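Weekly structure sync - notes
Attendees: PM, LS, DV (DV joined late)
Agenda: review two folding runs queued last week.

Item 1: First target. Sequence and structure tokens pasted below for the record.
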Amino acid sequence: MQSQIVSAATIWGIRSNFHSLIALLVAVLLIGFVYLTQNGGKLLEDYYAKSDQTSSRSSDSGCDLFSGKWVFDNQSYPLYNERQCTFMSDQLACEKFGREDLSYQNWRWQPNQCDLPRFNATALLERLRNKRLVFVGDSLNRGMWVSMVCLVDSAVLPPFKTMHSNGSLNIFKATEYNATIEFYWAPLLVESNSDDPVSHRLPERIVRVQAIEKHAKHWTNADILVFNSYLWWRRPKMKVLWGSFDRSDGIYKDVRMLRVYEMALKTWSDWLEVHVNTNKTQLFFVSMSPIHERANEWGGGRGESCYKETEQIFKEGFRGSGSDPKMMRVVEKALEELSRRGLNVKMLNITQLSEYRKEGHPSIYRKQWEPLTENQISNPSSYADCVHWCLPGVPDVWNELLYAYISRRL
């Protein structure tokens, strides 16, 4: 009997403690409910503020994509095989024309504070569905266009891709997506006597700084426009024509190059302001692509060039004479003025990251359009191409940067 009484008391005590615990939990919940009711808004505000801060740090606004370093990565790069790209250009196919050191294909650009998104050809084509991506400019922008075509080429089966050329306009089309990736030859953006896509190497360069419509009508209604114009301006003075190439009453005048560049960009800017639908079209301007023709600037011999170079330049902030900061400032000023007028043109600042890559040029490993002279054969540096870039190579990274912006917007 006494044992039963003790057991009953024990059970009663446990039940009493359990009920007390329940009561305590209910009290805590009630207090918590009252607290959240009074302060919940503040807590949510704090949470979303922290989320926004994290998001901004991971976006391009919190990270300078153009400040970083080259990292050797022969596991992930190159992003495509030169010989397997259907539309590779002989001007850029360095391996095909005898280059044996191929490490220039294995470098990845690593921004200092974030990572570039991995290029996804299928995802890009999906974003370009029923759209036009148009590169406009000189042979360096054409190289960037070839790079972009090669980057997506393997993602499109042969029956569903075409290439068509019509004068200055070259069009790659992924028919399954109704997407086009195009290049339009306009080395000075405005009209000039160098507008023929084949016969444009003339002793005197003449520009019509107020005329752009002949070119621009081919860009109208593009969804993404990527411009460049630098290489063909590199001379002290330019001859400017007020009038028409077809008439004899035009006025010609020699003008300082920088001033002509300003006038040409003004004409280009005015056209954009009038004709571009900012709700539809994304605009980019590619900065100067550096030239590596003077090896003494990075410690090589005087009179030598990029010929035989197999390593990049490791000096941080290196800037050679193949880039012109004054021209860069003219472009920046034009883009700032466009921004004040409500037009956002994103600068793809590829200059510094490309400055390091002296080994990335075709040098002598490309198709030679004219027979070499005996002097050239005996002195390969004299005809080495230190302007354009081997593919796969540096322009693929330019397109990775472009892809980073396209993938956020469309």
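Item 2: Second target, run right after the first with the same settings.
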Amino acid sequence: CPNLRKFQLKQAATFADRSPCTNHPIQCEFCPENSPAVWKYNLQSHILDNHPTASIERQEKRFKVTEQEQTLMKAVFLMKPRMSRKKKLQFGKLKISEGH
């Protein structure tokens, strides 16, 4: 995949002021064990769409985004991106598949 990026799951799941995003792939408890992981921020929708009889309240702490995380993520979103010219050239433009 040309868009493949490596990241550390434990680090991605841990909230920090300098890295507030905790979106990471997690296993849905209602799906079979060999099913693909679901991103944390999409878990609520996944459960509602694919497991309508499941108790969403019992799973809330797995997908809930704290107010502090929301606030800091908004600040990250509004910041001007800072990427060196070298990095820009290294990554180039991401290719989006026709399925998206």
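Discussion on item 2: The chain has a mean pLDDT of 84.
Action: LS to circulate a short write-up before next sync.
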